[in-house]
# Entry
Amino acid sequence: TATPQTQPPPRRMGPAKASSAQATTQKSAALRRPPKTDARLPQNNPQALRLAQNIAQRLLEKKATDIVLFNVCNKSSYADAIVLASGASEPHLSSLSKHVWESLKEENVRPISVEGGQNSSWVLMDFGDVVVHLFSPEIRALYDLDGLWSDAPREYFH
# Structure
């Protein structure tokens, strides 16, 4: 035997009405929700900033020019600090990267990877949370990473 129903069965909408109703519900829910934040971006990493400052000082010791540390903690998912510096020539760039490598090795800090080196006008050193770019002045002007990170907080080393 069938049991009597006290409520009518739910009304079914056609596909057009259902998508329109869903869109309205989603839109009003989006208006009530706070804006999304990117959970991958750390708020601050003092350890990375200290390492970047240490690297910048090491570069200064070997006469690198235009040394800039960018704090990209809230702007990048791949690094918390970026150090840019220029060298006068390819041998100078090689000397700068070797000095950073050797001096940090004494503190048990080693790069994850190094790209460029001998006969290169751009050397990239990846320390995980800190990325270092050593350029010839021409290559630095060409790629303009200073302009790319122009909205990030920065520190200059002279």
Remarks:
- Residues 23-42 have pLDDT under 50 and may be disordered.
